[in-house]
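Each record in this resource describes a single protein on a pair of labelled lines. The shape at a given residue is found from the number at the same position. The record below illustrates this layout:

***
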Amino acid sequence: MRGQLSIEFIVVVSGLLIIIAAVTMPMYNQARADAERVSKLADAREAANTLVNALNTVYAAGVGSRQTAEYWLPEGVVSVSFVDGAENRVDVKIELDLESDNAVQVSTILPSMGDENPVIVGNENFDVGSGLHRMTFTYEFSGDLRYIEIKVA
């Protein structure tokens, strides 16, 4: 009688543990994936803010100024670009290979590119691998053209 009771107890407890594991594992995996996505987006936003701060500093200091920014990119970055954004401002845009919410875009104080406004040159080929990167912004004036040159080191 005692042996049967012990076996039944072990079977019931094992069944409950299997049910609990079957319910909690998918929730854990989803929570981990969401946390990883949020972490990547936060890292990308930090990198974009670093670039924006350097670009704003160069623009505010005027022609002849130079600023080097070091920033860290997470895994899965597809592109880093400078685009015309809202309110006629230049934005720094970092795109990631995520299914949703896959881009971070931060505005600068630089007016949108074109006409008499400064133009950003050298922004075609950025290394988008994960890790530490360095970018140097230089505000130049040549003839009638004011431009911010970007050099990637």
User: Anything to note?
Assistant: The chain has a mean pLDDT of 86. The helical segments are 2-61. DSSP finds one helix and seven strands in the chain. The first helix runs from residue 2 to 61.
